[in-house]
């Protein structure tokens, strides 16, 4: 299999932009109209996510050992869309037809065979992972038990899963709300697991965001939502974490870090010994500091420091500027593990600034679901805007 040819051909196809998903979905739905119901009614948010992720994953088959966990995760996650093994053949045929259309004469028998083999390997790995997970739910139902409009654009939801739902502080899950069927979006619990099983979510209204707008403005107590399986390990920590921590959050990217703080605080209350933690929370305007009261109270703990950062209000008397810049110059962080969460732009900027400040990139942790987030029609960062970047 010529992996270099796979990658170069995908780069050529990708240059055609929006025409690629338009052709792909047209081919898929015309040849298999029964698959249309698996996708959202509005495809505006879907766009190139599926075909783009497929192209990226399949053309990276030369790194199969590295991406197998991701591919397996995709297979397990796709169960919530009611995807079955037979569907993979239809998707693969449309992918190959799309490649042939945009590559023209460059679509040789040899290249076609390589793409077919690579897609077959990926599809088989996804199907096997899905079948191996058949004894676990494809999704969990949870009832909305409380809603609090914390700021102009942030709502705090409390969910009560109808069945036991296990996750680790710092993880995320995809959620579907009844107002937006088949439009799954990623959110992070803002609390460590509780005895009563309840989960708190922080949701920020995003301009043009169909799901976030629906959640903030239309979700009601008594609604039932669906939760996908918890994923992600970059922001999770062992219960006995010993390394001092630097946390940098943008907007509602605070949520998973707040869950980790709760984990650390529980340990402190039991043992009296935990690592030091300094949290920088960045927002655009001061009224978006929606967890100020709780975090200010937590700052009375001997192990916790809290710095608020505002980027767009020149009259703000505290720290101002991009939260990553402020955090990087806020102290000596050598030896600390940094946890970063926010929009993609905020994360990229913060990681660069922390590295410039002397923190090894191997000690800077942030979640990046890559193709997983694309294929699952979900953008975790959609709930993490207003990040002070």
UniProtKB/TrEMBL annotation:
<dbReference type="InterPro" id="IPR001433">
    <property type="entry name" value="OxRdtase_FAD/NAD-bd"/>
</dbReference>
<dbReference type="InterPro" id="IPR017938">
    <property type="entry name" value="Riboflavin_synthase-like_b-brl"/>
</dbReference>
<dbReference type="GO" id="GO:0005344">
    <property type="term" value="F:oxygen carrier activity"/>
</dbReference>
<dbReference type="GO" id="GO:0020037">
    <property type="term" value="F:heme binding"/>
</dbReference>
<keyword id="KW-0813">Transport</keyword>
<dbReference type="GO" id="GO:0019825">
    <property type="term" value="F:oxygen binding"/>
</dbReference>
<keyword id="KW-0521">NADP</keyword>
<dbReference type="Pfam" id="PF00042">
    <property type="entry name" value="Globin"/>
</dbReference>
<feature type="domain" description="FAD-binding FR-type">
    <location>
        <begin position="137"/>
        <end position="237"/>
    </location>
</feature>
<keyword id="KW-0408">Iron</keyword>
<dbReference type="Pfam" id="PF00970">
    <property type="entry name" value="FAD_binding_6"/>
</dbReference>
<keyword id="KW-0411">Iron-sulfur</keyword>
<dbReference type="InterPro" id="IPR009050">
    <property type="entry name" value="Globin-like_sf"/>
</dbReference>
<keyword id="KW-0520">NAD</keyword>
<dbReference type="Pfam" id="PF00175">
    <property type="entry name" value="NAD_binding_1"/>
</dbReference>
<dbReference type="InterPro" id="IPR050415">
    <property type="entry name" value="MRET"/>
</dbReference>
<dbReference type="InterPro" id="IPR001709">
    <property type="entry name" value="Flavoprot_Pyr_Nucl_cyt_Rdtase"/>
</dbReference>
<keyword id="KW-0001">2Fe-2S</keyword>
<feature type="domain" description="Globin">
    <location>
        <begin position="1"/>
        <end position="131"/>
    </location>
</feature>
<comment type="similarity">
    <text>In the C-terminal section; belongs to the flavoprotein pyridine nucleotide cytochrome reductase family.</text>
</comment>
<dbReference type="InterPro" id="IPR017927">
    <property type="entry name" value="FAD-bd_FR_type"/>
</dbReference>
<dbReference type="InterPro" id="IPR012292">
    <property type="entry name" value="Globin/Proto"/>
</dbReference>
<keyword id="KW-0349">Heme</keyword>
<dbReference type="InterPro" id="IPR008333">
    <property type="entry name" value="Cbr1-like_FAD-bd_dom"/>
</dbReference>
<dbReference type="InterPro" id="IPR000971">
    <property type="entry name" value="Globin"/>
</dbReference>
<dbReference type="GO" id="GO:0051537">
    <property type="term" value="F:2 iron, 2 sulfur cluster binding"/>
</dbReference>
<protein>
    <recommendedName>
        <fullName>nitric oxide dioxygenase</fullName>
        <ecNumber>1.14.12.17</ecNumber>
    </recommendedName>
</protein>
<keyword id="KW-0479">Metal-binding</keyword>
<dbReference type="GO" id="GO:0008941">
    <property type="term" value="F:nitric oxide dioxygenase NAD(P)H activity"/>
</dbReference>
<keyword id="KW-0561">Oxygen transport</keyword>
<dbReference type="InterPro" id="IPR039261">
    <property type="entry name" value="FNR_nucleotide-bd"/>
</dbReference>
<comment type="similarity">
    <text>Belongs to the globin family.</text>
</comment>
